[in-house]
Design goal:
Distance between the termini: 9 Å
Order of helices and strands: EHEEEEHEEEEHEEEEHEEE
Strand content: 35-45%
Number of strands: 16
Low-confidence stretches: none
Shape: globular
């Protein structure tokens, strides 16, 4: 169910963690999700750590300077990163880096008109995550934004996403690409501040057990477990402060899945 061999244009395809302490991060996520890691050579001499589960690529970790925050980055697969980056700029986004050639992709880093940062990825030998939606793997991307309507318009124009409003306690929408559910967005709450951002979620068997393990491994709980219609989730942070969500839900819910 969770194995992926291709991603369509406009679907999330990869995540990586930038952190000031790669060794600490490797130990934390291995303890939490059972990931195996391999350090691969990268530009500038710093290693790019590939994270795998059952031999399948699920994420990556690389070093950030100590004065920058630790964060999980989201990548969107596109057929032509130069063309898509140029179109994003036309729609009001800012190009922060690239497009630039990497070892197995050509990527750019953009800030959308609402201030959220996301990367665009044109595959050149590496599609991104080859296992998603399974226990211990990435399963969802959620945008918290100060202007939900503007975000729906931007990503719709840029990537062809359709936005459907979701009934709930705060303004929220789900994004689809054809029949593929690709992510969600919500209006920022006062507790989240005013900085728009993309966040990532990982699937776990039990949200309460997961947060206990997070704390035992040196992480922190940012939002205690909450029940939602499809299951139960909590927002946590790793020891360096990178936030992410752990979600427990039953099949057949599908999050990230480009197959």
């Amino acid at each position: 169910m969770g194995e992926v061999r291709r991603y369509p244009n406009g679907a999330f395809n990869w995540i990586d963690l930038v952190t000031p302490d790669v060794s600490e991060a490797k130990a934390f996520y291995a303890g939490l999700f059972g990931w195996e890691t391999e350090d691969l050579p990268a530009r500038g001499g710093a290693a790019y750590t590939m994270c795998r589960l059952g031999g399948e690529d699920v994420a990556a970790i690389h070093e950030h300077t100590a004065d920058e925050r630790a964060w999980w980055s989201s990548f969107i697969s596109v057929d032509d990163v130069d063309k898509t980056t140029a179109r994003a700029i036309e729609l009001g986004a800012t190009a922060l880096r690239g497009p630039v050639d990497m070892a197995a992709s050509r990527t750019s880093l953009i800030r959308d008109p609402g201030g959220a940062i996301v990367s665009l990825w044109q595959a050149k030998g590496h599609i991104g995550a080859s296992l998603v939606n399974e226990l211990g793997t990435w399963t969802w991307n959620e945008l918290g934004t100060a202007d939900l309507d503007a975000a729906k318009e931007f990503y719709g124009e840029l990537l062809g996403w359709s936005a459907d409003d979701v009934t709930g306690p705060l303004p929220r929408a789900s994004f689809t690409l054809g029949t593929l559910l690709v992510g969600g967005a919500h209006a920022l709450t006062p507790q989240e501040g005013d900085q728009s951002r993309w966040t990532v979620s990982f699937r776990v068997a039990d949200a309460d057990e997961a947060i206990a393990r997070v704390q035992a491994l040196g992480g922190a709980v940012l939002l205690p477990p909450m029940d939602i219609p499809i299951g139960r989730f909590a927002i946590v942070a790793d020891p360096a402060g990178a936030p992410f969500t752990v979600s427990a839900f039953a099949a057949p819910f599908q999050g990230v899945d480009g197959s």
